[in-house]
Amino acid sequence: MTGSDVSSPSPFRLAYVPGVVPAKWVRIWNERRPGVPLVLVPTAAADAEELLRAGGADAGLLRLPVDRDVLSAIPLYTETTVVIVPKDHVATAVAELAAEDLSDELVLHPLDDTLGWEQPPGRPAIERPATTGDAVQLVAAGVGVLVAPQSLARLHHRRDLTYRPVSGVPQSGVALSWPQEATTDLVEEFIGIVRGRTVNSTRGRPRPEADTARDTDGRRGGGSAPARTGRTAAGRGSRAGGRGGSGGRGGAGGAGRRGTGRGGRPRRRS
């Protein structure tokens, strides 16, 4: 057989949206499944669901919500929502803002926004930026501010911008998702990794027969159980002999104690 006759294993394709860092899970996958390459498939948040439905990836790390009629999803974590502002903005004077603190601000809403939070009323309309990156550029130009998941603020970090947590606005949830009709063994393997299962986890599989037989022998009269019974009987015999033998009160040992006085000297007859 030549090298060309050996087929390579199919890779596990994992999609991920901007801001999500799958490095930890990829490392664990490579340790546990070195024979199955994991291929990362970057995708825009707006395109992630369609990519999974079309079979462009086996699973994906994307932002909620997802179409639960077609895709399965396991929520992983919820991100902090922040507002991105210039470093000299008045908002930097506090550690955290509330939604009402943005009522006088022009809040930018890029087309790839997944928070779904509408700008406070009374602000002038502006054409929506195409991407979060475009919106960050507008923030740096002093056009407005941007409300986004913290991971995106870090991804688009600039020296002239900063961010602050903001409450009272929607938060972004990140989930592992995959097509319901394509829950393969490799998908199950990756589910176990993101859920923190150990490499020895049985995940509900029946225990091997050898383990069951060994446990049964040890607990139900087999294996070492007769040895414990033998030791118990020997111990009872030893204690019985001690009570009736030379160490007992009525045996030879007792007679010896009665025939001697203190210090072992014989008693004088009267």
Give a topology summary.
Blueprint: E1 12-16, H1 23-32, E2 38-42, H2 48-53, E3 59-63, E4 71-78, E5 81-86, E6 97-98, E7 107-108, H3 132-140, E8 145-149, H4 150-155, E9 161-167, E10 173-179, H5 185-194, H6 209-219, H7 225-244, H8 252-258
Parallel strand pairs: 1-2, 1-3, 6-9, 7-8
Antiparallel strand pairs: 3-10, 4-10, 5-8, 5-9
Total strand segments? 10
CATH architecture of the domain at 10-78 and 173-194: 3-Layer(aba) Sandwich
Structural shape: elongated
The SSE string, one letter per element, is EHEHEEEEEHEHEEHHHH
Classify the oligomer: single chain
Query: Can you tell me the residue ranges where pLDDT is under 50 for at least 5 consecutive residues?
Result: 204-266
CATH topology of the domain at 10-78 and 173-194: D-Maltodextrin-Binding Protein, domain 2
Q: Which sequence of strands runs across the widest sheet?
A: 2-1-3-10-4
Helix share bin: 25-40%
Rg calc: 37 Å
Helical stretch count? 8
CATH uppermost class of the domain at 10-78 and 173-194: Alpha Beta
Describe this structure as you would to a colleague.
It comes from Streptomyces sanyensis. Keywords: DNA-binding, Transcription, Transcription regulation. Belongs to the LysR transcriptional regulatory family. Residues 238-263 have a biased composition (Gly residues). The chain has 270 residues and is an alpha/beta fold. Among the domains are: 10-78 and 173-194, Periplasmic binding protein-like II (D-Maltodextrin-Binding Protein, domain 2, 3-Layer(aba) Sandwich); 81-167, D-Maltodextrin-Binding Protein, domain 2, CATH 3.40.190. The protein contains 8 helices and 10 strands. The strands form 2 sheets. The chain has a 5-stranded mixed β-sheet with strand order 2-1-3-10-4. Strands 6-9-5-8-7 form a 5-stranded mixed β-sheet. Strand 1 (12-16), helix 1 and strand 2 form a beta-alpha-beta unit. The radius of gyration is 37 Å and the shape is elongated. Residues 204-266 have low confidence and may be disordered.
